[in-house]
Write a structure and sequence with these properties.
The chain has four helices and no strands. With 76 residues, the protein is mostly helical.
């Protein structure tokens, strides 16, 4: 495979893209909000801030959308 096309090929192939994200989260997964567990709230922060800076506060718009999504699925 041409190395220059590897990224384009992976992001356009769902299984490759999913494995990439799963491996990233496995590598950088951490308790960003210090609640003693690694969960969706931590992954949301890792998604925004990256694997080395997830202690920051999410901006209002992103946090509101995330909270609304979580609350929706918790009530189903």
């Amino acid at each position: 495979m041409n190395d220059f096309l590897a990224y384009d090929n992976c992001v356009n192939e769902p299984f490759c893209a999913a494995r990439t994200i799963q491996n990233y989260m496995k590598r950088y997964g951490q308790d960003c909000n210090n609640d003693g567990k690694v969960d969706c709230f931590d992954y949301a922060k890792i998604h925004i801030f990256g694997g080395y800076g997830c202690q920051g506060e999410l901006n209002y718009k992103y946090k509101t959308a995330f909270d609304n999504c979580i609350n929706y699925f918790l009530t189903q």
